[in-house]
Design goal:
Length: 65
């Protein structure tokens, strides 16, 4: 985990981190897109530091035909 955080901080790179557990999210992550598993492609977006919902929805590609 430290390697991911150090790399992101040193390079300023955008990080896309995928995990099944919120406890694994590195401290450098600022926004979270959480799939809701509702079978309809639902998701939640929130600030990773304080769990407040994001005011502006993240742009998500719709793969449906």
């Amino acid at each position: 985990m430290k390697l991911v955080e150090d790399y992101s901080e040193q390079t300023g790179a955008t990080l896309i981190y995928i995990s099944h557990y919120a406890s694994e999210i590195p401290a450098v992550v600022t926004k979270v897109l959480e799939l809701t598993g509702d079978g309809r492609g639902g998701y939640l977006t929130y600030n990773a530091q304080n769990n407040e919902p994001l005011k502006k929805k993240l742009e998500v590609c719709n793969a449906s035909p």
